[in-house]
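Step 1: inspect the first sequence and its tokens.
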Amino acid sequence: KAKGQKGKRITLKAAKNSIRITFDGRRRLDLSKMGITTFPKCILKLADVDELDLSRNMLKKIPDSIQKFQKLRWLDLHSNQLEELPEAIGMLQNLVYLNVSNNKLTTKNLPVELNLLKNLRTLNLGLNRLDNIPTTLGALKELKEVSLFDNFLTAIPTSVTKLPKLKKLNVKRNPFPDPTQEEHVDSIKRIETLYLVQEKDLCCSCLKMCQDERDKLNKLKNMIPSSSKKPNFPSLLTPNSTAKDNQEQWR
């Protein structure tokens, strides 16, 4: 028998001890960063929770039994190894928040049933392997925040960009054939989600990337002239005389 990666076994008792009460009084089952490789069946007995956090594990699949969490409003599956989502996810009619970023999802394995989540307000599909976005996502009229960053997208459907309540859209770092398309689509305020982790939790490549970015930032800070030596540009025209017609662009 080939040796597979063994994950931590979650017991019902351990799951019950992982229930937290949020600031607004909701019950959250927090099983994040537990080394879980298989969806723990025992948590189906706790299907009356309002929020479920299975992020930062090693899950490859979410079973159809997820539909038993009928009260679920908040589902966080980011930073796993998911290659697909179950069709049954469309049965979570009360879901307002869904985060499946940093997985291995492809367009082919995005279920059409996602368009049944009529109450969804936040959808994060960033850091996956999507090369196309289904136009059916335009049926989610309550969406306010959509993240599609770091995928393989070459276009964003109009049905998504024209969502009536959309306020934040992040399409950064996608291979758009026309670079101006990202700027045009991203004229809607981007959603910026920040996950704080310790250096020891980062892989070598991610740690190096963060350190490189920090070094760049420090170099930029060192290049900024001190206030005691303000540069003098007597030949510059006043901002009002040169930027009046382009003020929207500068904003």
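Step 2: inspect the second sequence and its tokens, then contrast the two.
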Amino acid sequence: MEHPLTKCTRMFFLLGMVMIELQSYGSLGCWEDERAGLMKLKDAFDGPTGYSALSSWGGGEERDCCKWERVVCDNATKRISRLSLREARFSRNGPSLDASLFLPFQDLQNVSLADNALTGFRGVLNVSKLEVLDLSGNSLTEIPSLDALQSLRSLDLGNNIYSNNSHSFKELTNLTNLEMLHLDGYGLMEIPASIWALTSLKGLYLSNNILNGLLPLRDISSLLCTKPALQVLLNSSLNADTGFEGVLNLRKLEVLDLSWNSFTEIPSLDAMQSL
């Protein structure tokens, strides 16, 4: 007959193994694969001196990465749902970022990579549940491949330094769930026609561009007749005195931004009761 102490010891051993297993699968903290993924991200963002805004990650005795700064986890699953990596790199010469670094984060829904001087991504960014992506304030030389981001609802590409802003934006046409697109400060001279293929688009931000002539305003008027939910923010330093024929017919327009122009008079907006 087994001695009671031996049986008790075995039970405590099994309980300890279960606790270790639960920790590995995130029940008592962040998931180990995501913790390892964060450490790889930290290494990628380390500056020439080996220091970045992510230096606190992995330091001290706190192993639960859900409690690390810039990291938000789902309360139930302990999976990482949000990463705020804005200005994480102390460098003005940021290289391209390896897209595979985000593969461990299966439930990531919101990520900001703004203001990191990134020039682009190596590989395809494949985060199936991602809904919000902020790439503003970087040095992107082209729009990265985002076809795998079918859940994406908001994309901010504003204030980037593109080597060629004449491309057709076809890289975005497969984002069928995209609702908000920021292209402010992009240097556009015309609105790319392929943007109108974004059937779920509700907000298009085009401030601080160099749109000129009557065509952009008329295109927007035509677009809003077919997509009345769309809100457009349009301002430009070079589209002065282009007329308002199309815009004044937008009975459902909610936002009209005409700042930073050179208009000699402000037209009557009485007909736009929705403003």
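Step 3: confirm your contrast with the notes below.
The longest helix spans residues 4-24. DSSP finds three helices and ten strands in the chain.
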